[in-house]
Structure prediction request, 440 residues.
Amino acid sequence: MDSVTDTDPELLDKVINLAKRRGFIFPSAEIYGGFRSTYDYGPLGVNMLRNVKAAWWRSMVQMRLDVVGIDAAILGPPAVWAASGHLETFTDPLVDCRQCKERWREDKIDGVCPNCGSTEFTEARAFNLMFKTQAGPVEGEGATAYLRPETAQGMFTNFTNVLASTRKKPPFGIAQIGKSFRNEITPQNFVFRTREFEQMEMEYFVPPADAPHWYRYWIDQRFNWYLDLGIPAEKLRLHEHAAADLSHYSRGTTDVEFAYPWGWDELEGIANRGDYDLTQHSHASGAKLEYFDQGANERYTPYVIEPAAGATRAMMAFLLAAYHEDLVEGESRTVLRLDWRLAPYQVAVLPLSKKSELEGVSQEVLGLLQPHFACDYDVTQSIGRRYRRQDEVGTPFCVTVDFDSIEDRGVTVRDRDTTEQVRVPIEGLLAHLRGRTDQG
Ligand code: GAP
Prediction:
């Protein structure tokens, strides 16, 4: 039935166009010509991004007793980034093309300038990816501050605060969702690599001897999270980093990779950070970032297993995996087969006609559903066109109110994927939809 396959060379462009046209993702500051590599999330995009983050929070925090959340500051003092190693090592090798003067990441261009084809470059320089700014009202006199390049450090610097306030014991985790900033030399591929993005990270503190077990455990958990939310197994794989490719803090990293239109690439990384961060911050700050195990009468620095995902990158992968074109009764349509938990709207209420007789019962249905589902309401154009518009943005259910609804108190529920329609009494509508979205 699908006419668009994984090999469609236009898939990325189609998704970018759909995202702009239907209000998922807009290029930022577009009326001023845009600001390279920054994006704004529109009315549908903000719903979907919130759903991605809510699904992560639900599985990583809400459904567990061993993980708690925080929301730490974005601005931080240099001391944090000196201790974490970012001031010294969070760099990319930067080269300038001698012919056209374009600047590139040396490790991404295979010795040939993508702009002019030249093979003559300057010596590589280490370029730090952190955004540096001044905190305080007088330029040049304030304290230097950095925008965080990862959310992780907030979990390490708050380790004792969280231990003391929650009385958690290893194994336990601290989770955070929030913006991170990196002055990427070559931002690219839509929201895959941007300078401002959102991360969903969890630092899981464990007794050192148990680190290998928890490393495997979190790799499996995180792989299954994407599967559960609808990414097909053949578009996901694990990739373990070779020792030479590990980040400065890592004793082992495995990426969950996704089959993007340009090939396999990183979706999320799961790292065994050892005791690197807590030890570094202990030495630098003088605070003892340790755990005292009363049973064993032993003090130790926990190891950290870190599943680190991108919310904005995950949203892009969910959009790419969901995008399909198929034929319904001989007519082609675009459909986003998004899991109902991620779709911007779960239900669209569609009065069959604009006529005022239908308004009362349509508003009644909307009022019944709105407290439980994100709902759209659309009275424009033919019903067929309205179905297509909802299919294109991934709305799993359309509820059509017609003239019979006034008398028989029934409505028609249409399924996005099968296009099947069933008549359901208004009184039982909420229970019906809850049943079909596992919320029963
Ligand atoms: N605390 C570890 C850490 O930050 P990372 O592999 O650099 O690890 C984790 O980042 C995830 O954050 C990546 O797998 C990706 O999903 C997302 N991410 C990183 N840089 C990004 C960027 N420039 N744009 C969008 N997402 C990014």
Summary: Residues 43-62 form the longest helix (20 residues). Residues 1-5 have pLDDT under 50 and may be disordered. The longest strand covers residues 263-274.
